[in-house]
Amino acid sequence: MTLLKADPADTVFPVEHLCDFAITFASMRTLTTPTATRLIASISHGSVEGPGLCGEFLAGGGDWITVGSDGVARMDVRALIRTHDGELVHLTSTGRVTLPDTAISRFTAGETIAWNEMHARSAPLFETGAERYAWLNSTVTVAVNELALDHVDYRVYRVG
User: Fold this and answer.
1) 3-class DSSP state for residue 34?
2) What's the distance, CA 128 to chain centroid?
3) Of 54, 74, 139, 152, which residue is most buried, by most CB within 10 angstroms?
4) pTM over 0.85
5) By CB neighbour count within 10 A (0-12 exposed, 13-18 middle, 19+ buried), where does 36 fall?
6) How many of the other CB atoms lie within 10 Å of CB of 37?
7) Domains in the chain, CATH or no CATH each
């Protein structure tokens, strides 16, 4: 049974740069369990800069990362943004990260791993009650990430 009338392979999704995130962690804790290695990164602060959204990350959010036996890190981000004009925007994001063997020791030593040195992609979603930012509630985004033990950076694209 075919559900789609057009071949998805022929579909091109336009994207436009929405903003960049620069997030600094207050702490990174590691916990090894029988099912996975878990990294819990608490947000200290951060910035949101771009043509579509500007503001700051408020302290208290975080990233609950689960690294499975397959070596894939699964991101689970929840955070709060205060826009440049004082509105609040809730952010959730999921994604996947795989580091090549050559980058793992650099990462654990505290180096930043650039987006083109690994596979790190995420899908931030926004939720707000602010009327001027209501368009964010229906916006789908994708992002490329750079990361280190003490921070993570996102380049966020709105999918058309």
Assistant:
1) coil
2) 18
3) 152
4) yes
5) middle
6) 15
7) 13-159 (2.40.160.20)
